[in-house]
């Protein structure tokens, strides 16, 4: 029963216990498997063994990788995705972000073939401007924060205005000093300075 449940979960997650027919699998000395699926004209990534540590996908016909493909590959840390005709629209974001987190060296290997705005760019240089279909998403996200930004700007203007008013009041305020608190000589000097200020 438990074994059947495990197999069902593996099947549902796109993982398998066996080597894909189009690939060559070799056990590594450290642990895990090297799965070589290169030069097979693959148009999609096959179901991979759960112990895959190194994956070679170079020289195929891959254009994209569906989100979640590598999510259950906890041992996977080395991937070669070079020499594939990657289509760099919004759908390539999953692969780009996964490589950034787990296999940064492959970011320079993967290069876009289409669309023309991103042709020959490595994944590491992709930004939202090149990724077609993501611009609308970014505009929606910006719209969500529009009111918050306006409120912050209004608050900043209000604070600056209050500071300006307080500064103006401080310059216009006259502080009266009780002369009886000072000795006679100090009172004379204080009166003299006050008279000089009035004559200015």
Automatic annotation (TrEMBL):
It is a single-pass type I membrane protein. InterPro entries: Cys-rich_flank_reg_C, GPIb-IX-V_Complex, Leu-rich_rpt, LRR_dom_sf, LRRNT. SUPFAM superfamilies: L domain-like. GO terms for cellular component: membrane. GO terms for biological process: blood coagulation; cell adhesion. Its main location: membrane. It comes from the Eukaryota. It is found in: Membrane. Residues 84-135 form the LRRCT domain. Keywords: Blood coagulation, Cell adhesion, Disulfide bond, Hemostasis, Leucine-rich repeat, Membrane, Signal, Transmembrane, Transmembrane helix. Residues 1-18 form the signal peptide. PANTHER family: GLYCOPROTEIN IB BETA, PLATELET GLYCOPROTEIN IX. This is Glycoprotein IX platelet. The lineage of its organism: Eukaryota, Metazoa, Chordata, Craniata, Vertebrata.
């Amino acid at each position: 029963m438990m074994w059947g449940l495990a197999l069902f979960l593996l099947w549902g997650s796109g993982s398998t216990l066996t080597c894909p027919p189009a690939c060559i699998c070799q056990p590594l000395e450290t642990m895990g498997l090297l799965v070589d699926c290169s030069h097979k004209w693959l148009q999609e990534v096959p179901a991979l063994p759960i112990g895959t540590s190194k994956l070679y996908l170079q020289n195929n016909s891959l254009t994209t990788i569906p989100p979640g493909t590598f999510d259950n590959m906890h041992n996977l840390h080395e991937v070669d995705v070079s020499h594939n005709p990657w289509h760099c629209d919004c759908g390539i974001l999953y692969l780009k972000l996964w490589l950034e987190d787990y296999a940064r060296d492959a970011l320079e290997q993967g290069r876009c073939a289409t669309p023309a705005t991103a042709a020959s760019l490595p994944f590491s240089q992709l930004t939202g401007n090149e990724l077609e279909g993501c611009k609308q998403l970014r505009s929606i996200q910006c719209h969500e924060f529009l009111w918050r930004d306006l409120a912050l700007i209004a608050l900043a203007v209000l604070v600056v205005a209050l500071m300006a008013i307080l500064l103006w009041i401080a310059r216009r305020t006259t502080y009266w000093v009780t002369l009886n608190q000072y000795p006679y000589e100090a009172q004379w000097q204080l009166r003299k300075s006050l008279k000089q200020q009035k004559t200015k």
